[in-house]
Amino acid sequence: MFQNTQSLPHLLPPSAYSCPEQYGREFERLFGPAWHLIATTAELARDGDFVTAEILGQPVIVRNFAGELRAFLNVCTHRHAQLTHCRHGNSPKLKCQYHGWEYKADGSTGYIPDAQSFRPLPGGPELLKPFRVATRGPLVLVCLDDGAQDLPEHLGAAATAVCDRFPAERWRHYASWSYDFAVNWKVVVENTIESYHVPIVHPHTLVRYGAPEQITHEIYPRSTVMHAPIVVPGIYRQLFNLLMPRLEPDRNPDRYRLDHVFPNLFLIPIDAMMQVMDVMPTGAESCKLTVRLFILKAARETFVTRRITAFWGWLKKLVIRQVLREDARIYPALHRGLKASPFQGTISIREELIFAFQEYVRREAGEQRRPETGD
């Protein structure tokens, strides 16, 4: 059931979805203290594995040092070059691509070519700038703010339980891909967490949204959870009943769960799949959505179970990409409507997770004032 019994006000004015000042506050106050998904544990499994990414305009590198993950600003202390421009790879040393300076796990210099020409070193600047890094399940996350919450507190108990349901090694990272949208990041977030649009936007892929008594919403100060039924075609159910017992007994194909960790992280576990998405703002009127797809592996893998996992990943990726394409078609109309709308807007009880999200944005980032209207 829903937690509210009456419709709710739309707390954010349309201008909050394009206003540069509002975007600046959200960028600093919502995303600055957040933990950001940067990689999977499979990408950093071996000594010397590394990944790089840009987080909030900062180039970041995460590297495996003999089993310990460390995160740094991807900038050499010598002449400010990026240590590497590769998206991922493996190297015996953390070594700057420009002049060959090498760094240890604590960020200090390990080797400097022609070191005598630098003596005496100033003491301090040659230490790489570290960031906090942590794992949960198959996810690797980085936080740029030393004073922010630890990862378990940021995720909350509900999302942490989703990550911890299976050991990281039980998940196969099947695929990752991204979309760039010319809309404010909140447009993508709010579309993701409401089911009201499903019959119109997804008439053939998701079909319906379920009766109120079939849906459960959990609302917390910094996260929400949706539990809902999904319509399973007959052929899908037959495949599920045939294949899933080989991977994991007691999996249910009929239930949909969506965990939203504010501001921008989504965990969607369904049957033998976990879909993980994050929405990163790239401007007041643009954002990037990154999707990572994990498929459950059998506790004891065989040739047959590996093929089942691969097939299930292929099938799930096919469906997810179609659903996201359907969502993407409506975003330009939402963007143009928000830019022109004189309306206050309203939120149904079915959309109450949007209300909870907007309360968080207004509380943490400050309220965008509505333009005054004359009599």
Termini, distance in Å? 41 Å
What order do the strands of the largest sheet run in, or round the barrel if closed?
A: 2-11-10-5-4-3-6
Estimate nothing, just give the exact number of structural domains: 2
Described by strand count, sense and barrel closure, the largest sheet is: 7 strands, antiparallel
CATH level-3 fold name of the largest domain: Naphthalene 1,2-dioxygenase Alpha Subunit, Chain A, domain 1
Unreliable stretches (pLDDT < 50, length at least 5) are none
Radius of gyration: 23 Å
Question: What's the arrangement of secondary structure elements?
Answer:
Elements: E1 8-9, H1 20-31, E2 35-40, E3 49-55, E4 58-65, E5 68-73, E6 88-90, E7 94-95, E8 102-103, E9 109-111, E10 130-136, E11 139-143, H2 151-164, E12 171-181, H3 185-192, H4 198-201, E13 216-220, E14 223-229, H5 234-247, E15 255-261, E16 265-270, E17 273-283, E18 286-296, H6 303-340, E19 346-347, H7 352-365
Antiparallel strand pairs: 1-19, 2-11, 3-4, 3-6, 4-5, 5-10, 7-8, 8-9, 10-11, 12-18, 13-14, 14-15, 15-16, 16-17, 17-18
Molecular structure report:
The protein is an alpha+beta fold and 375 residues long. It has two domains: 8-33 and 156-365, Naphthalene 1,2-dioxygenase Alpha Subunit, Chain A, domain 1 (Alpha-Beta Complex); 35-147, 3-layer Sandwich (Rieske Iron-sulfur Protein), CATH 2.102.10.10. The chain is 28% helix and 30% strand. The protein is built from seven helices and 19 strands. The strands form four sheets. Strands 2-11-10-5-4-3-6 form a seven-stranded antiparallel beta sheet. Strand 4 (58-65) and strand 5 (68-73) form a beta hairpin. The longest helix is centred in the C-terminal third of the chain and has 38 residues, at 303-340. The chain is globular, with a radius of gyration of 23 Å. The mean pLDDT is 92.
